[in-house]
Write a structure and sequence with these properties.
Blueprint lengths: L2 H26 L2 H24 L5 H27 L1 H4 L1 H27 L4 H27 L4 H26 L13 H93 L1 H21 L5 E2 H19 L3 E6 L8 E2 L3 H12 L8 E7 L4 E7 L13 H11 L6 E5 L2 E7 L5
Parallel strand pairs: 2-4
Antiparallel strand pairs: 1-3, 4-5, 5-7, 6-7
Length: about 450
Amino acid sequence: MVFQISSAVFIGMVLSIMLLNVVQWTIYRDRSYGLYTLYMLAWLVYFGLRINTFRGWFSIEATHFVRATVAMGAFYVYFDFADAILDLSHRLPNFYRQLQRMKVGVVIYVLLQTIVCFWISWNPVLYETLYTVMRLFMAALAVYSIRQILTLKDVVSRAYAMGTVFLWVGSLAAMFISMLSPNEDWAGPFWQVSLTYMQIGIIAELICFSLGLSYRQRQAAVRSAMMEQELQHEREKHHRDQLVSELAVQRLEQEKTEVHIRALQAQVNPHFLFNSLNSLSALIEDNTQQAGVFLDELSSVYRYLLRANDQMLTPLSAEMRFIQSYFHLLQTRHGNALRVVWQVAPPLLSRQLPPLTLQLLVENAVKHNVALPDQPLIIAITTDADNRLLVRNNVQRKTMRVISNGVGLANILSKYQMLNQPVPTIREDNGQFEVTLPLIEGQ
């Protein structure tokens, strides 16, 4: 196979790698892929111009200029590509500064060769001296660069160092062959042309660089996935902590509500006991037998009262049984002067309300109204179509001022508020005092 064919194969391989790299550059938007594309493009320009110079398309000065300087464009990009892929500016800052100075040296070398080739009389000795010195210096720099890069001790740096080794070997082989055979026959076998060995070194270098970039991108994807997983775990942990905090706040609010309700229930006990003892005291003086019955009923009522203090809600059926017993206590004192009307829909007996609510309302009605045989106090306990409980009594206010500590109705309203239930309504109209109580559905 002649060199022209092998050179075409080389250009095709470089173009394939470059096109693949352009696709990756478009996907990842990484500066490394852009510099890598520019690096391969520089080599394509170099070999394209070299082939055309051998065909005699350029003047002798331009031919020598292309031979000595165009490859420097690829090396110039090489320095920035090394920093982009290996992060030399942070990991090897001293080496990075040396590469920056070398970029300046490349520019100076190109300017000198421009002067030698175009601005002064042709001096082949000066030209070859500059060219050979630069090639040897670049070879020495390659050895130094390989040693520096290998100190990083990771997969990407090793791939990059290996690619540089291939380029270094190919360049040295091409230099020695060109020195041994200055007049190369491009129409002959490809292994007799010095550029063939440089092309082989470049292909091997590009393969190493591509593998290093692929590994680097894979590692970046793994790190990104791990970071996303950690962020997801952090979000889940934050969400769990937030739920725990909300539950703790809810428990505190519930405990606070329970404490307030128990405090309100505790207010009922001395109030009820005080009034009951007053009634018992009066009965003892008037009727000892009735006092005994009253005391038995009082014991039964007080048992319910103690049980009710341990509950925030009680079924309407239990409250109704209690109020009936309580009403017997009141009738022991007031007789027919106190009457109660019951009309509760049976399906609503399973509904709930705060315990002792009816006791407070009945007690409040008796406390503030006159109850006489010819002027009876009638208390009606009924339900309506909206599933509410209505406690109503005729208004017959006592002429004497009744001392009140304000516990009754305020206690009931506070309980409903703390249970986050609709507040009971209170109204007085047409000689009737009426309290409407919402009934709470059982849990």
